């Protein structure tokens, strides 16, 4: 139903779809759209302009703070502070202050490190300034175990931009940047407190090496005119009885040193009677400086073993990795060098801060008190060692010689003396020589293990050929030739009888028998340089195999090794010698004993025959307590006759050796007798 026309309803008209109604002519619809777009563009340009204006007019942002903190860390590590931006409250120049503060410190370390540890967050103020704190870690390694480490804080400030240019971070420079609580004018110094060098002690804790009074003798060039320097050095060389080489060296060092230099010539004991102290003191230009030095009872006492101390060389300093500094007294040879770190101890390090013109006590910033050295304990019996050295000195042998005594119960080396002919070499423990007929102790053990007994009959002809001809020693008794009991052949040291058993006992058997007596083993408990010999076990020529039975060809031993052989026979088990008493030597793995007591008892019986009726009868006649002995001689590589004697007295095995002698009985025998009798 359609509504009626009325005042509220217009007359009804026909509805035409909008698409069917053509637009009126000149309708402005498209122009209106373009106008809108134009308005939008104008607005956009205005906004962009405003944004550009804001961008151009805004204050530059605060620069990142981490990079500048890192840069200061690098500058502090190098000392190159000239170009780093800082603020100061005084006229101090940071780079100059840095150099002055650390001058005494940088000389004491190879290198030091500075690194950025952390930074606090940046705090911005309303006025555009900002700040943060950086913490730096410092490390000063005086040695591997002495490292001074600390941190310092640095305040950084940002004062805002400079016009349109961004500002920069600046460090607030104070001395405390360099070391904790460091004050203006203070300088750092390092004091090195030298520890006491420890003693070397022997059996029973008896002192061997300790600090003894000495005099350092030299030319003091400041005490004489320059024209007298050379003559003074020559006069001093004469007073000290220097040889040509030492004399020339002293003169050269005197001439090349500074005008006021003290040129050291020698260090002597205050009590040394070999030098005319009064003449030295009265010579113009010669100075004697008192001091102490770690020394043995005498200059000769076990010197090849103990070694010496002296001023550290450049090589020693470099190898110490900071432990040793120029001027330090260190071990330069022998046990003094091997155990230098233990004996020397650890220096104390004190770092202090003080003002150059102040009378105030330096302020301690850091200290490591260090520790004195720890004593080195040896098995040497002081009296026995001195006696052995005296016996060798009285024997007067020009060639190398030695006496070694080993305790069969403990393996401790009681004496290891090298004669004057050794010229400072440790012949006693390091000499390598064919042991000659003393090796027949090992050969005899090999034969016993292959069925022989002391009463077994063996042939002892004048000569025998096994690859080459073997003879008995000149003067061998005719009564002991022919078919004789093995004990007789051993007592008189029949070479041909021993060589004749080359088919019964293999080279491996000889090697194993020697090892059972400690010969050829590693010196695992010695704690010092030592050689225990060598006996080949592999296949060798028939002639060398035969020669091995009489301790020649490729068989080698040291006096220490042969004393160990005698000690093993005395002990009834394989002895491993020990010189240094320490946790390492006492805990070292010891070769298991392959020597049985019944075998050792038989060897003692055979060695007893050598003293009772054989080659050692005259040398050791009447010496009490001697269980047995064995003489020996061998041709050395240089054509010399190396002579030996080993003996057992009580529970001690002893070896005597002379590089150039006649026979074991006639050259080594009297030395052995003098040692065993104490006269």
TrEMBL record:
The keyword Hydrolase applies. Residues 402-676 form the Penicillin-binding protein transpeptidase domain. The keyword Iron does not apply. It catalyses: a beta-lactam + H2O = a substituted beta-amino acid. Residues 11-27 have a biased composition (Low complexity). Its EC number is 3.5.2.6. Belongs to the transpeptidase family. Belongs to the class-D beta-lactamase family. This is Beta-lactamase.
């Amino acid at each position: 139903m359609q509504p009626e026309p009325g005042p509220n309803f217009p007359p009804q008209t026909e509805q035409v779809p909008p698409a069917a109604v053509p637009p009126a002519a000149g309708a402005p619809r498209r122009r209106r759209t373009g106008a809108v777009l134009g308005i939008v563009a104008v607005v956009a340009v205005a906004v962009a302009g405003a944004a550009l204006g804001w961008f151009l007019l805004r204050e530059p942002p605060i620069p990142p703070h981490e990079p500048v903190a890192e840069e200061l860390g690098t500058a502090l590590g190098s000392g190159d502070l000239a170009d780093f931006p800082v603020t100061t409250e005084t006229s101090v120049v940071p780079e100059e202050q840095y150099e002055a503060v650390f001058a005494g410190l940088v000389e004491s370390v190879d290198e030091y490190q500075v690194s950025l540890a952390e930074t606090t967050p940046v705090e911005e103020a309303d006025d555009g300034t900002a700040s943060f704190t950086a913490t730096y870690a410092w490390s000063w390694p005086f040695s591997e175990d002495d490292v001074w480490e600390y941190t310092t804080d640095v305040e950084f400030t940002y004062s805002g931009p400079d016009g349109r240019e961004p500002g920069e971070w600046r460090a607030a420079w104070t001395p405390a940047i360099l070391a904790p609580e460091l004050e203006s004018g203070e300088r750092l110094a390092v004091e090195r407190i030298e520890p006491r060098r420890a003693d070397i002690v022997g059996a029973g804790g008896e002192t061997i090496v300790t600090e003894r009074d000495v005099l350092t003798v030299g030319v003091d060039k400041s005490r004489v005119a320059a024209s007298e320097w050379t003559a003074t050095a020559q006069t001093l060389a004469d007073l000290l009885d220097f040889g040509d080489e030492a004399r020339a060296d002293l003169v050269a060092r005197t001439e090349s040193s500074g005008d006021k230099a003290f040129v050291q010539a020698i260090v002597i004991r205050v009590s040394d009677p070999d030098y005319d102290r009064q003449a030295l003191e009265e010579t113009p230009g010669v100075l004697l400086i008192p001091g102490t030095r770690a020394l043995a009872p005498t200059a000769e006492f076990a010197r090849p073993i103990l070694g010496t101390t002296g001023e550290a060389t450049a090589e020693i300093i470099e190898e110490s990795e900071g432990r040793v500094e120029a001027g330090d007294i260190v071990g330069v040879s022998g046990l003094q060098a091997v155990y230098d770190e233990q004996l020397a101890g650890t220096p104390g390090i004190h770092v202090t801060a003080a003002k150059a013109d102040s009378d105030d006590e330096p302020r301690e910033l850091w200290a490591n008190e260090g520790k004195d050295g720890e004593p080195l304990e040896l098995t040497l019996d002081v009296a026995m060692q001195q006696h052995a050295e005296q016996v060798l000195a009285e024997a007067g042998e020009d060639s190398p010689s030695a006496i070694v005594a080993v305790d069969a119960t403990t393996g401790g080396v009681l004496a290891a003396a090298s004669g004057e002919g050794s010229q400072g070499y440790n012949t006693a423990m390091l000499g390598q020589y064919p042991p000659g007929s003393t090796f027949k102790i090992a050969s005899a053990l090999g034969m016993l293990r292959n069925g022989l007994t002391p009463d077994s009959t063996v042939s002892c002809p004048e000569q025998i050929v096994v690859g080459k001809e073997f003879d008995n020693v000149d003067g061998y008794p005719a009564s002991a030739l022919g078919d004789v009991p093995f004990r007789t052949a051993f007592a008189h040291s029949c070479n041909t009888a021993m060589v004749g058993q080359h088919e019964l006992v293999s080279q491996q058997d000889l090697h194993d028998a020697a090892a059972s007596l400690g010969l050829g083993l590693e010196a695992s408990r010695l704690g010092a340089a030592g050689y225990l010999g060598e006996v080949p076990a592999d296949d060798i020529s028939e002639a060398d195999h035969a020669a091995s039975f009489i301790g020649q060809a490729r068989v080698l031993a040291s006096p220490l090794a042969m004393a160990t052989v005698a000690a093993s026979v005395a002990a009834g088990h394989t002895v491993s010698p020990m010189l240094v008493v320490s946790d390492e030597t006492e805990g070292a793995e010891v070769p298991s004993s392959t020597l049985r007591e019944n075998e050792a008892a038989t060897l003692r019986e055979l060695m007893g025959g050598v003293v009772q009726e054989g080659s050692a009868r005259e040398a050791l006649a009447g010496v009490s307590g001697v269980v047995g002995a064995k003489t020996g001689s061998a041709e050395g590589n240089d054509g010399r006759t190396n002579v030996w004697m080993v003996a057992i007295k009580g529970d001690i095995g002893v070896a005597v050796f002379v590089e150039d002698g006649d026979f074991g009985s006639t050259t080594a025998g009297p030395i052995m007798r003098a040692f065993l009798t104490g006269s």
